Amino acid sequence: MAESHDLGKKAEAFAVDFLISKGYRILDQNWHHGHLELDIVCTDNKELIVVEVKGRRQSIFPHPEDIFSPKQERFIIHATEAYIHRNGISMQVRFDLVAIVFNKEGFEIEHIEGAFFPGVE
């Protein structure tokens, strides 16, 4: 369990650095609303972007539609609504995925913008 937690923290740190390098401004990391959590909340000054980070040691990564179950989407949307309300945000929202695969050479990173859309199944 600890190794999985460490891998997740490492993946989130790489994701933050990656997003900053793309010009995103990080607003929050590991933001909690009750038991719900948003990995990264950032902005590109046009949209509020909620980023789910997934880190793996394997080279085969599932498609985004296989990562976000309808239940997980509902949790992320609910937490995002709370974040927007608490912070008085009036921007459009986008839900992204940053997938990081660790290998012997280092890691590969993939950023999927609009990984899921609320209400679309």
Structural account:
The chain has 121 residues and is α+β, with helices and mostly antiparallel strands. The mean pLDDT is 87. The radius of gyration is 14 Å and the shape is globular. The chain has helices spanning 2-21, 64-67, 70-87, and strands at 25-33, 36-43, 47-56, 92-103, 106-116. The protein has a single domain, classed as 3-Layer(aba) Sandwich (Trna Endonuclease, Chain: A, domain 1). A hairpin with a 2-residue loop joins strand 4 (92-103) and strand 5. It has a five-stranded mixed beta sheet with strand order 1-2-3-4-5, sandwiched between helices.
Protein topology:
Blueprint: H1 2-21, E1 25-33, E2 36-43, E3 47-56, H2 64-67, H3 70-87, E4 92-103, E5 106-116
Parallel strand pairs: 3-4
Antiparallel strand pairs: 1-2, 2-3, 4-5
Element order: H for helix, E for strand: HEEEHHEE
So what's the CATH class? Alpha Beta
Main sheet record = 5 strands, mixed
Mean pLDDT: 87
Class derived from helix and strand content:
alpha+beta
What's the domain count?
A: 1
Q: Top keywords for this entry?
A:
Trna Endonuclease, Chain: A, domain 1, 5-stranded mixed beta sheet, 121 residues, alpha+beta
Concise description?
With 121 residues, this protein is an alpha+beta fold. 35% of the residues lie in helices and 41% in strands.
